[in-house]
Design brief:
heterodimer, A: mainly alpha, two-stranded antiparallel ribbon, elongated, B: alpha+beta, Alpha-Beta Plaits, 4-stranded antiparallel beta sheet, two-stranded antiparallel sheet, 4 helices, 6 strands
Chain lengths: 403, 122
Amino acid sequence: MLEEAFRDEWGRVVASLVGFLGDFDRAEEAAQEAFAVAARRWPVTGVPDKPGAWLVTTARNRAIDRLRRERALAGKMHLLAAPEATVDEVDDTLIRDERLELIFTCCHPALPLDGQVALTLRALGGLNTAEIARAFLVSEETMKRRLTRAKAKIKAAGIPFSVPGAHLLPDRLDAVLAVLYLIYNEGYGGRVDLGAEAIRLGRVLAALVPGEPEALGLLALMLIHHARRRARFTGPDGADGADSADGADGADGEDLVLLDDQDRSLWDSRQIAEGRAVLDRAIALGGRGAYVVQAAIASLQTRERVDWPQVAELYRRLADLTGSAVVELNRAVALAQAGDPAAALRAVDRLDLDGYLYFHSTRGELLRRLGRDAEAEAAYRRALELAVSPPERRFLTRRLEQL
Amino acid sequence: MRYALMIYADPGYLEKLSDAEREAARADYFALADDDRYVGAAQLQPAETATCVRVAGGRTLMTDGPFADTKEVLGGFCLIEAADLDEAAELAARIPAVRFGGTVEIRPVEIRPVEIRPVARP
């Protein structure tokens, strides 16, 4: 439970310290010290009324102590002039929440994307370097270098710690949303449940920019998808195997379960309901952007009876917004589900996606439904050439056998 | 913070512009030069005039041509004083060459702390 409190407070504490110290490394160092003190003290004294304020104050005082010890750092001397606050007199309301500034710094487009992702998880999410390294299947040393490079560039290039002005905000918010969605999609890979982590960050962001429908749209999308994670794979371990953190990407022995065949009792209905409620708020705010539309599609797909023509229509809107051929492919699938595989095949055959596994598996499926077995077999074989993961290969092999 | 804005562009781009476009580009450039944050700038002569120098084994070697033989060449640079990278990027985007397909590389300038020495009095 202490760990829970820590994870919830970490981002706020680091944000406040970066704002105060103007330096990521010092901020993290001070935050770590404060959390270490809390870990020793709180089990004895109990959790203070305002844990966040306590941590920020303690960390600030530690940072000031450290600066005093390193007086050589002349440029930071002005900080020492600030009166030292005692823990008791600090009120949560006096500590400004600077997490939004922190998010925009971490997701600044002048940083490489992998650095943005790592820094967001570290500074805001409170994951440690080893955890992030495991999640992205790289060595701890590599991840450490990635984080160090990103922090060094923030400092050297003067990447601001601020919420961008109105003229920059839409683009920058898009960049933040893209980083969170990337984290979400990396989920199920390593031992850390990045899906849950992305949702946590998505909640923080949605609370910080309550008037932005796309932030709500992304949160809704992640919630509804995440709610189905346990039903997506199955295998010798049973459905629970899919939820175990390190095997969920369809490791050996687990099989892919298509939406139609998923056991709905494994869906997290509370999470779906929450996702729908968030989506409603996004739509009420006038949200019609790409994340809102994707969340609306995900929501429709979790209905008892899926309204496929409506799903196809939403994919059309999404294709207009994104110009993506993959979205067009999904629209075609929805058309087929709506009962028109011939129209679906015509739509698929217009696409230029030859190197894409799902292009061929979708064609195979449509040709099979249209009774064109020889062509279906060729398409499935091409898909199998492109498939890498064992569950996908098994799935395609089964389809070929069934022809 | 001080930043160098290094302007890379297709060398012939100015000639391809209409008179009106060229005039507008000049005006934009002068407006930028009037900005308080503008420190200085230099336009470079064409890359054909470039010479590279290396020292090997105590000998100075000169070769004809720019350091990197690319389609876009370093055509000039600006020095500016900006609060942060976002502000520097806004100024960089106002450099006319960017509008015509050029790229501006922003690099923070190393500022060494100035050692303050007592002034010797006569």
